[in-house]
Write a structure and sequence with these properties.
Blueprint: H1 8-20, H2 25-41, H3 47-57, H4 62-65
Helix pairs in contact: 1-2
Length: 68
Amino acid sequence: MGIVKIDDQLHEDIRKASSVMVRSINAQAEYWIKIGMLAEANPSMTFSDIMREQMKQADVDVRKVIGG
């Protein structure tokens, strides 16, 4: 574990987003970092493509989760 220095406004945006997404501030920052890394590594993929692939790799069948 380490400490990462970020801009105060970015921290405030993470805090607000974490409340909406029902995550801790750290979990929200980790989520954005992971999605950002995946987006940089896969520039041709959309956010939806990235999420679909991550769910597939985690063996989550979204259709079953939402009852479809």
